[in-house]
Amino acid sequence: MRVQFSRFREPTLAPAILGLLLGVSQPACNMLQKLQKPESKSEAAQTVQPGMFTLTPDQLSHLKTTVVAKASWAVAVHTTGTVDWDADHTTQAITQVNGPISRILVDTGTPVKQGDPLLYVTSPDISAAVSAYRKARNREAFNKRIVDRMKELLDQGAVALKDYESSQADFNDAMTDVQNNLQALRIFGITPQEIALAEQQGTAIATELAVRSPISGVIVQKLVSPGQVIQAGQTACFMVSDISTVWVQGHIFDRDLPTVRNGDTVQETNPSLGRAFQGTVSYIGSIVDPNTRTTPVRIVTHNPGGILKKDMFVDAVIHTGTQGNTIVVPVSAVLRDDKNEPIVFIQMEPGKFAQREVSIAGQQNGLIAISSGLQVGEIVVSDGGLFLQFAGSIQ
């Protein structure tokens, strides 16, 4: 007994997809019907050529073309960057004496001015330095009186010249000691008012020393706690930064290196902030990152109101100012293939079009710069290229 099976042909999905995508446009639908069903054998023979599309006059009326030309092109390099503190205006506040912290006056985020006290340290180093300064001042005053007395005696012939000169040398040594001890107080950060108070004999010597802000800015890091014993010249107490400017650390590829220069203006944006920031390229690295194959670039950026924060990401456009006579086409003329590579459709002959891969080099003012793939004078489809691309995908 023989069993016969009927063969059913699986229906193709292309017409259904085509109808759904282009149903909103009757002219486009008519064009696709004509492409799928040529009116004559000669027309069918022409459409089987790979990548070539032949359109009727009616179909051509729905396309727009433009002639490839050159334009003066300001080169703009696009990159991303990470916000960092301005290292030229960021520093640590470090004490010059040993001892425990007695008081902390500021916290993270506190704005400070240069010379403002940040904390106080109780240290025997202060009392020793003030005591040495007082003794030096007493010795200076004592030797000054001896010199004055010896000068009077010398004028009267009561003492020898060498005795007067000896007293003058002792006075000079006393003044040197005063300057040395005064310099030590200044290194500790003691103010002139505190020094004037220390010169008063018989007053108590304060053992607290203020650690003062070396610059004006904002406390961006607090590195100590109350009661902590700190070491002279080693313990960093605070990080202070002038956040009116920040550094944006960006990266540029090899192809963009020849066009970027120090001093180029940069516009930076962050979608969450809703505004643009202005910066300037201040440094271009001399090495290539082995992981990203990019060269670091530093952008000094104005930061009004401290809106930009450390480690925030921004998009940056470097305006190199380089003017180039570049081949350009409208943005609508450039499409993407299934490999996400840029393509355009070229008019090979009247009514005949072909797909071509191109290389792009930037976009601005509704135009795209083409670095390779097109020549001046060629005709490209500027509007309607999506119809040709879809028609080619279903053939």
General description of the model:
The protein is an alpha+beta fold. The protein has four domains: 14-73 and 325-393, conserved putative lor/sdh protein from methanococcus maripaludis s2 fold, CATH 2.40.420; 77-87 and 242-322, Efflux pump adaptor protein, beta barrel domain (Elongation Factor Tu (Ef-tu), domain 3); 93-118 and 211-240, RNA polymerase II/Efflux pump adaptor protein, barrel-sandwich hybrid domain (OB fold (Dihydrolipoamide Acetyltransferase, E2P), Beta Barrel), CATH 2.40.50; 124-206, Helix Hairpins (Orthogonal Bundle), CATH 1.10.287. It is built from eight helices and 22 strands. The protein has helices at 14-22, 26-36, 41-47, 57-60, 124-155, 161-188, 192-198, 385-393; strands spanning 52-54, 64-67, 69-85, 90-94, 99-104, 111-112, 117-122, 208-212, 217-222, 229-230, 236-241, 245-252, 265-269, 276-284, 295-302, 313-330, 335-336, 342-349, 352-357, 359-364, 367-372, 379-383. The strands form five sheets. The protein has a six-stranded antiparallel beta barrel with strand order 3-12-15-14-13-16. A four-stranded antiparallel sheet has the order 1-19-18-17. A four-stranded antiparallel sheet has the order 4-11-9-6, with no helix packed on it. A hairpin with a 2-residue loop joins strand 20 and strand 21 (367-372). Helix 5 (124-155) packs antiparallel against helix 6 (161-188). The longest helix has 32 residues, at 124-155. Residues 1-50 have low confidence and may be disordered.
